[in-house]
Specification:
The chain is an alpha+beta fold and 168 residues long. Helix content is 38%, strand content 26%. The protein has helices spanning 3-10, 12-31, 47-59, 68-75, 79-85, 88-95, and strands at residues 108-116, 120-128, 133-144, 151-157, 161-166. Helix 1 crosses helix 2 and helix 3 (47-59) packs antiparallel against helix 4.
Amino acid sequence: MSINSAFSARHPSCLMALMLVLVLSVAKAQEAPSTDRVLEPGPERSAREVVAIQLNALSDNDRPERNAGIEQVWAFAHPRNRVITGPLARFTRMLRGPGYAMLINHLGYEITEIRRTGRTAVYRVRVLSRDGGFYRFQWRLEKAAQPDGPAWMTTRVTPARQTGEQLS
């Protein structure tokens, strides 16, 4: 028996977890391009792309500068959401708080569409946090009037719920 198969036989959950991390990392890299500038809402972006842009930004939150990822998320916050969660300094404190902190510098994610209509979209997001835990969120978006036409923007993200899975 080789070392790899001996490890696999004794630690199947670790092997599955490592495979999941690899899959999540590849999916994250394919969802949206990395950028050093804040992307803006526009009619050309799909609802799923908006969620991916936000998650990619949060996965490397402090690049190119501190809280750049949070600023990217703020750029896609629906105007009604901004009234409730803003200004940006308050929004930043909320994202660094207990309900959302696991999004900051997370290791990977999965996006699953729950429902979508012409004006609203809801996605289930599963995140692998830097603490090795998996957390679930629900991302809600609506189209909002923008200078170039209606664009998908985030109206609500539910606080984290642990899935009970842990990368060991």
